[in-house]
Amino acid sequence: MGNKAQYNKEEIKEAIEGTFGIVAQLAKKLNVSCVTVYNYLNQYPELRDDLKQERERTKDYVEIEFIRLIKEGNTKAILQAAKTLLKDRGYGYSFEQASMQPNVNHLMDLLSEKIEQGS
Q1: pLDDT value at position 91?
Q2: Which of 27, 53, 72, 82 is the most buried (most CB within 10 A)?
Q3: What gap in Å lies between CA 9 and CA 53, rounded to an integer?
Q4: How far, in Å, CA of 99 to CA of 64, rounded?
Q5: Do residues 40 and 23 lie in contact, with contact meaning Cβ atoms separated by under 8 Å?
Q6: What are the pLDDT digits (tens) for 84-115?
Q7: Domain coordinates of the chain in residue numbers?
Q8: Distance of alpha carbon 12 from alpha carbon 48, whole angstroms
Q9: 97: burial class by Cβ within 10 Å (0-12, 13-18, 19+)?
Q10: What is the rounded (10 degree) CA torsion for 79, 56, 64, 70?
Q11: How far apart are CA 15 and CA 35, in angstroms?
């Protein structure tokens, strides 16, 4: 998108793709201010859903990559999963300081359950 004074709904909808659902990214892509983007979103409320869907696609991508890292045995990803998913079992920020090695298979089972619940 170039330096255009005004965009129509379809042009904005098209520009949303690849912005990760972030207003500042959309503003940069359209070469306008964030205030202008919010004005467009007020003018075309249905675009809010498109922006939200773009954000959800980004979250899905991040989650898939996170699970891939865990499956590969990435220690930082496993620790992050433990801090997030195992709080009810006493894992947290102190977990990083512990000398315990988490059971990767158990963590994967927990992640699978979480994904199934979200479906």
Answers
A1: 73
A2: 82
A3: 16
A4: 28
A5: no
A6: 888 888 776 554 444 455 566 676 677 777 67
A7: 9-53, 73-118
A8: 11
A9: exposed
A10: 0
A11: 16
CA angle 65/66/68 to nearest 5° reads: 60
The token pair that represents 40 in the structure block? 């467009």
The length of the chain in residues reads 119
**Cα 91–chain centre separation:** 23
Q: How big is the chain by its Cα radius of gyration, in Å?
A: 20
Q: Which two tokens stand for residue 86?
A: 């195992």
Q: Are 27 and 36 in contact (CB under 8 A)?
A: yes
C-alpha span between 119 and 116 (Å, rounded): 5
User: Token pair of 117, please?
Assistant: 């619940």
